[in-house]
Write a structure and sequence with these properties.
The complex is a heterodimer.
Chain A (H helix, E strand, L loop, with lengths): L4 E5 L2 E8 L2 E8 L8 H16 L7 H6 L10 H16 L16 H18 L5 E5 L2 E4 L9 E5 L7 E6 L6 E6 L18 E8 L2 H25 L3 E6 L4 E3 L10
Chain B lengths: L1 E5 L2 E6 L4 E3 L2 E3 L6 E3 L1 H5 L8 E3 L5 H5 L2 H10 L2
Antiparallel strand pairs in B: 1-2, 3-4
Chain lengths: 260, 76
């Protein structure tokens, strides 16, 4: 289903559509776009990824693998590459991020959305657009190019989703921010006995790319404070985490992204 | 770690270089630090372009701050 609402407000256009069980908003600073809008190709990237990887679509390639109807070894090259990438992230996060559901089913939803966002960003840039923002279900990638006013992304308050907890100023080096919650939809975060065990209820990560941001946000929810410290030490990424009591913890470099 | 994305595909995941001091590879452990809500709240008045939050469903989107932001833009 597509909402396909589009409107130019001055030079700013917003395009909203539904995919992967969530809603994507694409903001573009541009005058009238050509008939073959790159926004259509962005929608295609998401819908193709949705058809291939969604476990709630019985006919998807990944559902066929889950059902035992298609061996992984005979699946498409793209799917196998995505799975390999997921495994490399599992190894890099000491298993905090994993593409395997509790019942053993391969679930790539923790990776696919970020991948589709990254690919969409490439499409917009290749189309000559240099000022854009993509938000897919709360994970945001901004154009990294020079802009008079940098992109500012608000972060929702974990305790009251009608409010912002803070906002961050995106930079050329860190144009991506992803937020994960311990109670979010399509739980691709697995931990022993249930979500009440999670130390953090919400984690936001700023990173050089949206896949890294998304994977690490998921991994820190699953891995808790240890993985937050591990991220601070090992990745070119900054994180802000909210624990069950509403206490905030951040990597040392996070503060530099707050608006002044 | 850094994911390398080329032509829309993720081609590699590269570990960042550790700091080299002489011939010894040194890793400086960084610890997350507590922050006060008031520290991060002080900038609430900043104008935001997009909103990051835990993944919402299509139905959840309709109630979200992002939807409010989008519709404000529709209204111009």
């Amino acid at each position: 289903m597509t909402l396909c609402r589009e409107r130019a407000a001055g030079r700013r256009q917003i395009h909203v559509f539904e995919t992967m069980g969530t809603t994507v908003s694409v903001l573009v600073d541009a005058d009238i776009l050509s008939a073959e809008s790159p926004l259509e190709r962005v929608e295609e990237v998401f819908s193709a990824a949705d058809s291939r990887y969604s476990l709630y679509r019985r006919e998807s390639e990944l559902s066929q693998i889950a059902a035992g109807a298609l061996p992984l070894s005979e699946s498409s090259e793209e799917l196998r590459q995505m799975y390999e990438l997921a495994i490399s992230w599992r190894n890099a996060t000491s298993g905090a991020f994993t593409p395997h559901r509790g019942d053993g089913v391969i679930d790539l939803s923790g990776l696919v959305k970020g991948w589709a966002i990254a690919r969409s960003g490439d499409i917009l840039t290749a189309s000559g657009l240099n000022s854009w923002c993509i938000n897919a279900g709360g994970d945001v990638l901004t154009s990294a190019g020079s802009r008079i006013r940098p992109w500012v992304v608000g972060i929702v308050d974990a305790e009251d989703r009608t409010k912002l907890m803070t906002s961050v100023v995106m930079t050329e080096k860190h144009p991506a921010v992803a937020t994960s919650g311990s109670t979010e939809r399509g739980a691709h975060i697995w931990k022993g006995t249930g979500e009440s065990d999670f130390d953090f209820v919400q984690v936001s990560v700023l990173a050089p790319d949206i896949v890294t941001a998304d994977v690490l946000a998921t991994a820190i929810i699953a891995g808790g404070p240890d993985l937050l410290d591990f991220t601070a030490t090992n990745w070119d990424a900054e994180a802000l985490a909210v624990d069950r009591n509403g206490i905030l913890r951040a990597t040392p470099g996070f503060r530099a992204f707050l608006p002044t | 770690m850094k994911a390398v994305i080329s032509g829309g595909k993720i081609t590699d995941v590269i570990p960042l270089q550790m700091t080299d001091v002489g011939s010894t590879s040194v890793e400086i452990d960084q610890q997350a630090v507590p922050m006060l809500r008031s520290e991060v709240l002080s900038n609430q008045s900043a104008k935001v372009d997009m909103i990051s939050g835990a993944t919402y469903t299509s139905e959840g989107y309709l109630m979200s701050l992002q939807a409010a932001l989008d519709s404000a833009l529709f209204k111009g």
